[in-house]
Specification:
The chain has helices at residues 38-52, 67-76, 96-99, 122-125, 130-142, 176-179, 193-204, 250-260, 312-323, 344-347; strands at residues 20-26, 57-62, 84-88, 102-106, 112-117, 147-149, 151-152, 155-156, 165-166, 171-175, 208-212, 229-233, 236-241, 272-277, 283-284, 287-288, 297-298, 303-307, 329-333, 348-352. With 355 residues, it is α/β, with parallel strands linked by helices. Helix 1 (38-52) crosses helix 2. The longest helix is centred in the N-terminal third of the chain and has 15 residues, at 38-52.
Length: 355
């Protein structure tokens, strides 16, 4: 008997702004992600958890031996520990968007949230991924959630949550650089555009896919869309743009802008596309870091936006504040966070509420 896919059973991935039961975080412990700054990063986590726990549960993946220190940090940050749960599990790193439980929801009289289990291979770049790859399945097992292993022709499909963006109505955004490049950081050798679109439909309910080109420079995921282009409501996208024509990001970001002028949403309507600025380049030694205001996160109580001590911070917060009216837009200092090649959205993964 053929395996029924989530879409065939009525499941689809909700938009991030829809109500969460919880947000998942991985407590920071990988020193190579933040050389010399791990202590400072813990305090940034304290601020993130303080903001999240106002409106939802915060479930933190952590080794049991680190819990006492995490509790001390969160208490000193005045986070509501009554809304924090510690999920004891070994991990390789802390990028919960990419290894955490990607969830789909089925509405109706008996609503259900399930986990779609993609394979995680550390962006087809790093060797330390096997502990992280186990976490979504452990979440499903311990939380007693149904799990759908994602397969294409019987082979597990590798994909990270930061590579996809949805409006909760059937439209999904992704980049060709991330998924279709067969030479650099290739997640799934031989998979075509049509293969990916079939996976998006069967497992996430994404019946309309908008393909962008390249992501921003410095993103070591090789083109994740969550540093590039995000929905802020069902028919409005924000897309980062680089005004400086001499900057290496200018041309590919302009190309993506031009692509979006001709696309349509799942209902045939044209989306509103709003430009977000880019901060001035941030470097660590020879590496340009992927600083982007598009890496914001919709929590129940606020939209958390990375800021970079840059004049464009105010502009980006103002644009998002005009677009999102149902919760405050709050800046979180992310100059230290971005040293790990990611910020707020990369660190978080939402678990939607059932109803």
């Amino acid at each position: 008997m053929p395996v029924q896919t989530p879409a065939a059973l009525g499941f689809a991935m909700p938009a991030e702004w829809e109500t969460h039961e919880a947000t998942w975080l991985g407590w920071p412990h990988c020193r190579s992600d933040w050389p010399g700054k791990l202590g400072a990063i813990e305090w940034v986590y304290g601020e993130i958890v303080r903001k999240l726990a106002v409106g939802e549960k915060v479930r933190i993946v952590i080794d049991r031996a680190r819990e006492a220190r995490a509790r001390r940090v969160l208490a000193r940050a005045h986070a509501d520990l009554g809304n924090v749960e510690f999920f004891h599990c070994a991990s390789d790193r802390g990028w919960s968007r990419d290894f955490g439980p990607v969830c789909v929801r089925r509405p109706g009289p008996r609503p259900e949230v399930a986990v779609v289990k993609f394979k995680f291979t550390a962006w087809a770049k790093y060797g330390n991924w096997k502990k992280d790859d186990r976490i979504a399945a452990l979440v499903a097992k311990r939380r007693r959630m149904r799990m759908f292993p994602v397969l294409r022709n019987g082979v597990p499909v590798a994909l990270e949550g930061g590579g996809i963006e949805v409006n909760g109505r059937g439209t999904l955004v992704a980049t060709e650089e991330c998924f279709l490049d067969q030479e650099t950081q290739c997640r799934n050798p031989g998979m075509s555009r049509a293969d990916y679109e079939r996976v998006f439909f069967d497992y996430l309910g994404g019946r309309n896919v908008l393909w962008l080109g390249e992501g921003i420079v410095g993103d070591d995921t090789h083109g994740h869309v969550d540093d590039l282009c995000r929905f802020v409501n069902r028919d409005t996208l924000v897309l980062v743009q680089e005004k400086n024509e001499a900057d290496i990001n200018h041309r590919p970001l302009r190309d993506n802008w031009e692509r979006l002028q001709d696309v349509r949403l799942e209902d045939g309507s044209k989306p509103d596309v709003i430009a977000l600025p880019m901060p001035a380049p941030i470097f660590y030694d020879k590496w340009r870091l992927p600083a982007s205001y598009a890496n914001f996160y919709f929590a129940n109580s606020a939209v958390l936006v990375p800021t970079f001590n840059d004049p464009a911070d105010r502009e980006a917060l103002g644009i998002l504040g005009e677009l999102v009216r149902d919760r405050p837009v709050v800046g979180i200092h992310a100059v230290d966070l971005v040293l790990g090649f990611g910020t707020l959205h990369c660190l978080t993964q939402q678990q939607p509420a059932r109803g």
